Amino acid sequence: MEVILLEDVRALGRKGDTVTVKDGYGRNLVSKKLAAEATAKVKNDMRLQKQHQEKLAQKRYEEALALKDKLAGMFINVGVKVGKDNKLFGSVSSKEIAEAFKDQLGIEIDKKKIILADPIKEVGKFDVPIKLHPEVSTVLHVNVEGNGKKA
Question: Rounded to whole angstroms, how far apart are CA atoms 148 and 88?
Answer without folding.
Answer: 10
